[in-house]
Amino acid sequence: MDVCKVVCFLVVLIVFPVFSQEKIKDNGSLDSIQNLNTVDIKASKFHKTERLGQKTVEVSAKEMARNPTNFTELLRYNSPIVFKDYGNGGTSSARFRGTSASNTVVLWNGININSVGSGQTDFNSLSANTADEIIIKSGGGSVEYGSGAIGGTVHLKDHLSFDIHQNYQLFTSYGSFNTSSNFFKANLGTGKWAIKLSGVFNSSDNDYPFIDDRYQDEDGNSLKNDNGNYINYGVDLGIAYKISNKNKLYFYTTGYYGDRLFSDGLPNPSAGSERNEDFNQRNLLKWFYRFGDFTQIINTSFISQEYRYYDNKDSKDYSFGKSQTASINYSLNYRFSNAWSLKYLMVADHINGQTTDLVSEDRDVFSLGGILNYKPNSDFIFSLGARKEYNSDFKVPISASLSAEQKVAKFIWLKANVSANYRVPTFNEMYWPVVGNRDLIPENSRQGEFGLEFENFGLKFNSTLFYIDLKDKIIWKPAGNSNLWTPVNLDAAVNKGVELFLGYTKKIRSHFFHFSGNYTFTEASDSENGRQLPYAPKHLLNYNLEYGYGIAKIYFQDLYQSKVFTNRLALDFYSLDLVHVMNLGLDISLFEKDNTNLVLGGKINNIGNSLYYFTNLRPMPGRNYTININYKF
Questions:
Q1: Percentage of the chain with pLDDT > 70?
Q2: Distance of alpha carbon 624 from the chain centroid
Q3: 87 or 48: which carries more pLDDT confidence?
Q4: Sign for the pseudo-dihedral over CA of 67, 69, 72, 73
Q5: Which among 389, 342, 50, 61 is positioned nearest to 198, based on CA atoms?
Q6: In which band, very low, low, confident or very high, does the pLDDT at 49 lie, cut at 50, 70 and 90?
C-alpha cells in the first residue's frame, strides 16, 4: 500500500510541472512573465473528495451579519476573489486567480445558477444572507461542476436537519443613504420532517456623495450617485422527509425580485435614467437513497431567470432576456472496499433562452463522468476523475482531474491537483443579433496547484501555488471598422501565482483574539501581447482582526488591491489606482442564555474616507455608518 501511495502522489507532482512548462515547449524560451477573513477556514461540511487537493474557504455566519449589504461586500473582505462592480449596488462580477467572470461558477445546493445569457452571476442581485453555508473553492472543477469551473466555484448551501429542534434568527440593519438590510431564518426538525423558511429584504437610496474633488457641480458641491437606488427581496423554502435513515426526500425552492436604477457615473451622474428588474425562480427536488455499498442521489431542478431593462425608468417599454433550464443530475457512489470507492455521474440539461431581439434558442447537454477515490488510511487520499459532455451546439473537450493529499507530519498536509477544464460559449456570445458568432468553440484550460496546510495551536496556514494555461479564450473585439463588437476565439492566457491564508484564534480567560487573512499574488498575462489581463490585480490582500472582552467584540477589516488595467492594451491612462479601504465595527451581546442571543452591532465603513474605484468613473462610497440587531432564539 505504501508503494501505491507514493506512486499516486508522485504522478500528481510530476504532471503539475509538465503543465506549467508547456509554454516553454511551445515558444522555445521563457518570456518575462514566466519568471517566477473574518473568514473561518475550518472543517468544512464539504465531502473530502469534493475539495481534494484544492483550497477552500468557508465564510462564517458571523461575517454574514457583519457584511449584510450585499454578497459582493461579504466576499470582498473574506475571500481571495476579485470583484468588478459598477458602483455600489451596480452589477458585480467575480474573478478567481486572474480569470474572467465567466470562469467563475456559482452553485445553489449543487445546481449551477450562472446566467444562460452572459455565463456570469451578478453578485449584487444574489441574496446570500439566508444561506446556511458559503464555501469558496479555488481552482478547476469541470469534472464535478461542468462548464465554466476554471477559476473557481462559489457554493451556497441550505441545511435541513431532522434532529428535533427549533431555531430562529431575525436580523435588521440601517445605515447611511437610507440603506436597510433585513433577513429572517426559521429551522425546524421533528425527527421525520425538516423545514427551513427564510426571507430577505434590502433597500437603499444609495445617493452617496462622490468624494472625488475633480468633479463638482456648478456651485462647487460634490456630485451624488443620483439614480442609484435599489430594492430587492426574496423568499426561500426547504422541506425534507425522512422515510428511513437510508431513504430521504428534499425539496428546495426560492424566489427573488430586484429593482434597481443605474447611475450614469461621472462626470454627470444625474443624467442616468436606466432601470433594471430581475426575476429569478429556482426549484430543486432531491432523493437520497443508500442500499448496501451503494449511495445514489438524484437531483431534478428547474430554474428560470429574467431581466427587464428600461432605457427610461419612467417608461413602460423595456427590453428583456429570459431563460429556463431543466436538469436531471444523477450520482451513484459504490464503495467496493475500505480503501476504494467509485462515483458515477450523469447530467442532462435542456436550456431555452430568448431576448427582445432574439428568437427562442435551445441547447441540450448530456454529460457522463466518474471519479475513482483511493483512501487506504486517514493520512492519504487520491482521486482520479473524468467527464465528457455532449452538447447540441458544438464539440466539448474531455475534462479530467487528478488529486492527492498526504499527511507528512502530525499537523502538516501536502495537497496537489491537476485538471483539464472547459467553458462553453454563452447564448449572448453565439446568438446576439448581428454580432453573435455561431462558429465559436469552447474555452479549455490545463491547470494545476500545489499546496501546504498546517493547523494546530489555534493557528491555520495554507499556501497554494497555482498555474492556469487557458486556450481559445473568448473575447469581444471590434468588428472591422464599425462600432460593433463581436466575440471570437482568439486569446490564450497564462495565469500563475500564489494564494496564502493565515488564521489564528486564541482565548485567554475573558479575552478573545482572532485574525484571518487572505493574500493572492497573480501574474495573468495575455499570450498575444504579454501584458497583464484586465481587472486582474497582481496583489490582493484582505484581513479581519478581532478582539473580544466580556460582552463586547471590536473588529477591524482591511482591503488592499493593487492597480488594475481596464483594457487589453494595459494603458495607464485607463487604469484604476490601488485600493486601500478599512472598516471598524463593534458587537455587544445584550443577552445570551442557552440558544438565545441578542447582539447589537455598529460599523464604520471606509474609516479613512478613501477615494477608490472598481470601475472607471464610478467611485465607491466614502465614510458611512451602519447599526444592526441580530437576534437568535
A1: 92
A2: 26
A3: 87
A4: negative
A5: 61
A6: low
